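Researcher: Let's try something more involved. This one mixes different molecule types, so please make sure each is placed in the same coordinate frame as the others.
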Amino acid sequence: MQVSMEINGKAVSIDVEPRMTLADCLRHHLGLTGTHVGCEHGVCGACTVMVDGAAMRSCLMLAVQADKAKVVTVEGLSCDEALSPLQAAFRKHHALQCGFCTPGMLTTAHALLSKEPQADETRVREVLSGNLCRCTGYTALVEAVLEARDAYQGGQEA
Amino acid sequence: MSAEGKAIRPAATGYIGQPVPRPNARRLLEGRGRYTDDMVLNRMLHVAFVRSPYAHARILAIDTEAARAVPGVAAVVTGRDIAEICQPWVGVLGHFPGLKSAPQYPLAVERSCWQGEPVVAIAAETRAIAEDACEKVLVEWEELPAVVDMQTALAPETPVIHEELGDNLAFGLELKAGSPEDAFAKTAVVVEETFSFGRHTGVTLEPRSLIADFEPGERRLTVHHATQTPYQMQDVYARHFGLDEEKVRVVAPDVGGSFGLKLHVYGEEMATCALSILLGRPVKFVADRLESFLTDIHARDHQVRARMAVSAEGEILAMDVEDVTGIGPYSVYPRTSAVEGNQAIRLMGGPYRMPNYHGVLKVVFQNKTPTCQYRAVGHPIACGVTEGLVDMAARRLNLDPLEIRRRNVVTAEMYPHTSPTGYFFERLSHEECIAKIEAMMNYSSLREEQARLREQGIYRGIGFATFIEITNPGPAFYGVGGARVSSQDGCVMKLEPSGRVRCSVSVTEQGQGTETVMAQIAATHLGVKLDSVTVLTGDTQATPYGGATWASRGAGIGGMTVLRAAQALRGKLLELAGIILQRGPETLDLREGVIVEADTGMARMDLAELGRIAYFRPDTLPPDFHPDLTVARHYVPQGLPFAFTNGIQASHLELDPETGLVRLLDHWVVEDCGTILNPLLVDEQVRGGVVQGLGAALFEECLYNEAGQMINGSLADYLLPMASEMPDIHVDHVSTPTQFTPLGAKGVGEAGTAGAAAAVMNAVNDALAPFQVSLAQMPFTPERILRALGKIPSS
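Model: All components are placed in one shared frame. Result:
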């Protein structure tokens, strides 16, 4: 089936099998391998991308369901020159080890702060609880997201 | 000579101990990681497996005809097909006398011995086609009785899984020191408990993955492999497929977590290589999560009957333990599944001056997923049993739990010290760690608060766990037993013509920050700026041979290879500079990447100039002088079979007696890994380790039914620690550098996992103390807590 999407600001039109997930489409058809697949049943959160502004599990969504949607993946978060404030905060706080959960953590946190730039620690922990990290103690992740809040004030999407 | 003219002072400690962020973090944050599944090779096929639906069953017939007919399928192979080109393996080691296991093949040949064991492999143009074809394979099975309960595995009426082995006992061991019988007969207090440690698994977020790429012309096999141990796998692939070792290349790209899980030999990996060899095409395997639960190694699964003899003054006199552990149907190759039990019974009582000990270990086969080494091998078992008994003794004697520990730990003047089971401790810091954690957590005010809240019906608990940790293992671990697992490591360091430094090391990176720490050591001991060093890891063709990363050996052993190489290269650079500048090399120094006069610090030339002359104008150098600006150095762990570290953890939690729910409030760790190379990385190693221990304590358990079927093999059913359940984890350190290396660094990867579960257990039982009940079966689920409280009937 033919699917048209806007991915990271660019229009894309591709032919996919109806059974193909959005995650597999991003990774295997479009080469956007920053989106990771950790469980394929919607629990680990590694495959989280933003679809029309909302954080979505791309392993639970078929590519055909994303027809005409705006999709942002981890590759779309940073500018060419520099890390986004959220990414920079992750680096500063050592909020990643192996890096496999990181894209999903970033997209999840980005979706949260874009809507709720005032989110407090409890709220951040609650939202990140949909994303599994096996390496860190989560503390640095929470600290990084809290620090990045400044960049989202005033509706500005960092 | 652009650097000439300014003065540079010698660095005090350089980059050692600095909280340097990881240079590779940026790539990972931008979604530019390169994990195995991100790679695509020309003509690459994908493999999927037909798996045993039974815990134990005989294969009567396999009909693959319909599967072969599926368009896009390149090959359908059975266990017999692959056995023709792959030697089977047996997971035994010479230093575990009596350890036995049966030959294991990539795919089951006559019988499957656990649910999920691979039986047929199908390579196809896409994974989806391969999976479609798997549906069309017909296997005729004869179900056999399954050995499920490890407690009855040795009973005469229980069937023997591998008849040729005679019984289901893989390994047995008995240790005795002093006179434990006398101690138990004469002592004032004996506490006794049966501890259960649930079977759980590593759950690396990146599943096991590899791409095998065989080139038939020269019989070269390249394997892009999410592994901790590229050299071990190079050896395994070469020997079992009959290939020349130097023609097997194993490359570990970015690896998404390992925790011990990604260093074992798995049937799927061997079958993937076999398919590539048979087809002459690249073949990719990436486990899905359901496959991971059934085939990644599981861990723990111990039941320990234990007792401790304690004097009226609270002095620990003896321990007597019997540990039964179930390892699945095979001892895993090449490191064996006897190591965890062996370490568990040897680590018992380790922090304490206990003079008498008796330990019995029974490692038994069962028809469940094989278990093997996972983070903190054996430690949580020994720590849980010991610390659980210590708290029981303290309660019986009405002693404060910190006080009984203070009275029993091995004290400063006793080092060097040897434990009753033969472990040698160079110098540990139990007393300082106890003092530090007491202050750090405001212990006395926490106790006051606990008493106050109890009057209001709020049940909080405080639990401690003193622990020791095995790090920096030498050949005593595997090499002496005949395993081709290297305990030495290597580093090749070279000056690039630009004056930058390339450092290739055999220790590997799975997110710990290995590359960062190696760069810190290189820059410090060479005398260059940190950002001029690039570290390469994980490629058997580009890095020197070594053991790589496991058992907390990367920093301590890998770090020494870099230190030695840096010192050697520094000597070569100063020698060359001396020739160019026509002065004795001893009058020169290398600081911040600049050759300076040692006495004044006056800059004379930078390394780019040195590189330019050495590589492009060697005609200006004296005849017969050949600048060696690439050096290789290896390091063999010296003096000790392993370097022990130590520490103490404390858990503070609230238990709701109505719901059985436990809420973790705070967790503290004081640990001593010797020289801290990078505090940012060390603290996160500790925190990450703690979280895995908290998972074992409260959430994680592989559940099986009576037929040996795993009933919670998905992330929806197998609970893991998530952000909202995790407490703040406060980390502090005592630093007792090992004197056996100039680096002074010991390991830290196991520390958090070693003690976290025991601390939670003691805190749960502290919270339950007013109800006169206690628990010793991990994980401490709400159901188990409510049963203990009599709120729901006991099972």
